[in-house]
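Re: the multi-chain job from yesterday

Posting the exact lines I submitted so nobody has to dig through the queue logs.
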Amino acid sequence: MNKKTSIFGGVTIIALALMVLMPILLPSVTLATEILIFALAALACNLLLGYTGLLSFGQGIFFGGGAYSASLVMLHLNFGLISALITAILVGALLALIVGALAIRRTGIYFVMLTLSFSQMAYFLAYTFSDWTGGDNGLLDVPRPALTLFGMTISDLQSSEAFYIFVAAVFAIVFVFSRRVIHSPFGTTLVAIRENEGRSSAVGFSTNHFKLVAFVISGAITGLAGALYAMLLNFAPLSNVELLMSENILIMTIIGGTSSLIGSILGAGSIVLMGDLLSSIWPRWMMILGAVLIAVVLFLPGGLWGGILSLTSKFPWKKVKTNVTSEVTK
Amino acid sequence: MNLYLFQVVNGIGLGMIYFLISVGLSIIFGLLNFVNFAHGAFYLLGAYLSYTAVSITGNYWLALIIAPLCIAFFAWVCERTLIKRVYHLPHMYQILVTLGVALIIQELCISIWGPIGKSISPPDSLKGVIAIGEFYYPQYRLFVIAFAAVVALLVWYLLDKTKFGALVRAGSEDAETVSLLGTHTHRLFSITFALGVGLAGLAGVLAAPIKGIHPFVGPEVLGIAFVVVVIGGMGSFTGALVGGLLVGIVQSVMSTLWPQGASLMIYAAMALVILVRPYGLFGRA
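And the result, structure tokens for all chains:
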């Protein structure tokens, strides 16, 4: 397999094309920004679910943790944009380290239950420590600092277009980074663990270490997404850490498709868009979401992206996919 | 002192409701090895159906019988059309499909009964209070404890003393062998699923006059049911009873002191049990 194509291949080009097209085609730039932020969260969830086989109900912990921590350091310590985002990444990673280290001690349904219980604990903690989190009201007046590099102000990011470009740049970096991760020996080992954990550990991989690192990467990216979301809204609501947020991120990931990172953009895009377009016409649009979720699990296990791929089977990265599986079976 | 006694008795009532919800989840997991994330939604639907039944007939007792039966029937239809297709899939897919079912039920409830909660009052014959010495207690809450205890006894009898129960227990061990011995396991599965979900519906009806009916309560109920089932041990009747009472009493006693603390405690206890003793207090290793 040619490594260059796997990193900067067709998938990355499609992702870039989507990023350029979205603000043009969608009714508002803010909507496009929201899609990219949730695409980040879904992508992080995909690393766990699609590539490692871990169904985590804890993504909201990292999302909310990132949102709260970035907001707090900006509000109380006057952190700038980049340092606030780095704080969110670190906090997301740390939370994922704690949750992951405990959750991976169990597998299957007990793993899911552990992430669920941590998610609920995080919610009630955030609710209890309302001095820090604002409780039910959320954290208000979260600033969106200007982007400065080496003392030079590049943009104040106040216009929604400027903020979109910044979020898109962040997304592109994370996307390329994640593609590097999944196509590295580390990433293929994760797939091996997903396919057959027993055999992977028999071959000599310390599977728990791999799962934990996957958790930390996922938590870091989700924390980043949470921070960006707080900056977009100028607000860090309690709903960020609700179980519903974890469920939504999970549903976006599944509906988009877990076989490729592009799926996460499609999943986040279709659900955020559906919510925006339908909620004004029919407030109960979530009913459709439930039906779509069932349909995807039963009839389209590859999600939207899998559906598109099977319609157009001549795509070059089909080869990449089979390569990965063949490496696993070897 | 009286306040604490009051809270403990309240907790027993709450615990019996939690038991009814959890025992269904537990049996379904035990026999069908199926994780039902729609369990809380069925509880919600049961509560709403009782609201409609009471407002049409004006008779709570009728609602108490009709609503759980409707839920059981609805669950049976769900099982025949959808749920049976996911038995053979990994737990992950079962969770996602039932999450979808839960979403549909919740949104359906809101579109029928509106986004604002409803309340129903207890039947006239149970509206008063009972005085035991200096201790006054609402009649309806005592009725809930007694009624749930009778149902618990019936469920225990059904599972422990009847042929159906023997089949359920045998099926939990090895469904394939039971099938080879000539039992229609798919029929057994449907009935068990309908029974388990029907119990959740019954819990919804019983709880409605005490807690009111709120459209977004499904996930919360599901969460508590999982706590109870995990603490008691998946598939264990005794575990669901003890776990339910434990969680109910803890929540009730803490409710005046620190309600979020109670939730924190029970979820922390759940995590601890999974980490230290994953088969629960009464489950088998």
